[in-house]
Structure formats: C-alpha cells, structure tokens
Amino acid sequence: MKHALITGINGQDGSYLAELLLEKGYEVYGIMRRKSVVDYGNVEHIKDKIHFIYADMTDVVSLTNAMKISQADEVYNLAAQSFVATSWEQPLATAQIDALGVTNMLEAIRIVKPEARFYQASTSEMFGLVQEIPQTEKTPFYPRSPYGVAKLYGHWITKNYRESYNMFACSGILFNHESERRGKEFVTRKITDAVARIKLGVQDHVELGNMDAKRDWGHSKDYVKAMWLMLQQDKPDDYVIATNETRTVREFVETAFKHVDIEIEWSGSGVDEIGKNKATGKTLVKVNPAFFRPAEVELLIGNPAKADSTLGWVREISFSELVERMVKNDLELVEKEIKYNNL
C-alpha cells in the first residue's frame, strides 16, 4: 500500500485528490495547520479515512516530522496562499508560504525520504503578461502579482532540486480550475453563489471587476487526475494542465445565469458596463473598480498537448457542465440557508 502526504488537503484540489487516492487504495495523510477550532473543510465527509498531521509550510521542523510520520511515497504540495488579490495585501506571507514553503517541503523530503516522489502545484499566473498564445511548458514566464512571483520561485526550486539531487520532483502548471468546492472569495464561485441568491430572491445584484479578463477554466476533479499521473511516470517532468479554451469573465456570468433561465443583456462599457435581465430589464451585474487588480493578467490559455500525449490525460467535464454543477450546488446551499433562517 502506497502512502501519500497532501498539503492543503482541505482545499478543493486536496479534497478531490484525497478521494482519488483513497479509491486507488492509498494510505492518505494530510497536513493541517493548528487552529483554535478544527476545520476539516472539504474533507469533512472523508475525515475518518485520513491521517491528519499538524504542521505548517513555514516550519521545516514540522514538515520533517510529517514526513517521518507518514513515510510518504508521494507528496502533493497543494498548500498555498492562493487568492491573488490577497497577495498584494500580504506579499510577505504569500512568499513565506508559496515560495519558501516549497523549499521547506523539499528539504523535509530530502532529509527523511529522498526517493519519495514530489508534486508541486504551479500556476498559469506565472505566465502573467503572456509572451505567446497559447502558453506551453516552453513559454517564458512574466508574473504580474506577488502570488505569481512566489509561485514562480516554487516552480524553479522544484526544478532545481530535481536537477541538483536527482529527486523525482514534478510541477503541474495548472490553469484556472474550479468546482463546487471553490471558496467564495474566488470570482467564479462569487458569480455562481450570486446567481443562486439572485434567482432565489435574496440578493439584488453582483459587483465584479474586469469583465474582459480571459481565463482557461476546467474542473478540479479532472485536474487532480493529472497530478497523480505525473507521479506515475518513469521520469519527472513539468506539464501544462489546461483545456486550450479561453473565455471572458463576462461569458462565465452569461453561462451561469443561463443555468437559471436568465438571459443577460449588456450595455455600457468599462466601469459603466451593466448586465440586465433581458426579460425584466432589472440590473443584475455591475462593475466595481475596487475589484480591479493593480496589475492585470488579461489572457490565459494553455496548450495541454504534452500532458495529453505523455500522461494520457483526459478531461471529462466541459466548461458548461462545470458552471452548471457550481450553480446547482449553490442553489441547494442557498435554499438550505433560507430554510434554516426561516425556522
């Protein structure tokens, strides 16, 4: 039986990965930060099947201890300060976790079990001001946020340990991937939650930032399969994980509202753009400059040809199904909330 250690196990990716590894018969260990109130997050439903270890990405001693306890054959580093907007407000904390934290984890592996296989969650935000379209493993990086810069360090230190110590260390350059388990601070979940609330009459409208930003969106459940596949190969390497399709935030909004039978009609431009319910004329979407980034990433679209051919990676959930799943889930959650508040 293989042992796997997952950092960030209670996030959306960590939870889907834990489910996948449990299905494959792994003994799964998950790192959690100690809090005053225990929060299992997205792994609440499988917490009895996971061995939890208290540790922190900024504390190499605790990570070394986690490696000793788990004796992991595979380590998946998914822990991060992953909200781009927060990285401008907390640049040092972001660097400590997303950059130096990766080094801490690699050092823990090197000291305790150097033959263990390591996966690093890199990100399309490293491409930032894109140098070519679509982006591949060979596209030059140009990060546009403290988050992207910190993740770039994590990406390169993973490659450096692979080449310096002959460690089996891979990076998955994951483009935007969402799910029903995504946090509400992310724009996609903010949209689907708002759509559910507007449909059920408990919210008037939603305010968003740059409607023209283009992203390559897939489902987290598909993307964790690629993570696992990377660590099953004969040789370690880095892979772009994406759909090779890009859509604007505006298109995401339109698709989400369509799943509750509302057609959005746009008028105005820039900060004055609004989206109305075509049937009623009511304004449901507004632009708020407060949500603009200090340095915007305008376009991301990844070419997963290498992952498709080398890993045999297959995506099963389309963009429309992704949005439909998120909207349906939020409708159920908001309905429960309304029922609870009316008791």
Return the average pLDDT rounded to an integer. Answer: 96
CATH class of the largest domain: Alpha Beta
Strand content: 15-25%
* Residue windows where pLDDT falls under 50 for at least 5 positions: none
Supply the CATH superfamily name of the largest domain.
NAD(P)-binding Rossmann-like Domain
CATH architecture descriptor of the largest domain: 3-Layer(aba) Sandwich
GO molecular function, one term: GDP-mannose 4,6-dehydratase activity
Catalytic activity: GDP-alpha-D-mannose = GDP-4-dehydro-alpha-D-rhamnose + H2O
Family: Belongs to the NAD(P)-dependent epimerase/dehydratase family. GDP-mannose 4,6-dehydratase subfamily.
Protein name: GDP-mannose 4,6-dehydratase
Structure description:
The protein has 343 residues and is of the alpha/beta class. It folds into 2 domains: 3-178 and 218-241, Rossmann fold; 187-215 and 247-300 and 317-341, UDP-galactose 4-epimerase, domain 1 (Alpha-Beta Complex), CATH 3.90.25. Helices cover 39% and strands 17% of the residues. The chain has 10 helices and 15 strands. The chain has helices at residues 12-23, 60-70, 84-89, 91-112, 146-165, 187-199, 220-230, 249-258, 305-311, 319-341, and strands at 3-7, 27-32, 51-54, 74-77, 117-123, 169-174, 177-178, 206-208, 214-215, 218-219, 238-241, 247-248, 264-267, 274-277, 283-287. The strands form 4 sheets. A 7-stranded parallel β-sheet has the order 3-2-1-4-5-6-11, with helices on both faces. A hairpin with a 6-residue loop joins strand 13 (264-267) and strand 14. Helix 4 (91-112) packs parallel to helix 5 (146-165) and helix 6 packs parallel to helix 8. The chain is globular, with a radius of gyration of 20 Å. The mean pLDDT is 96.
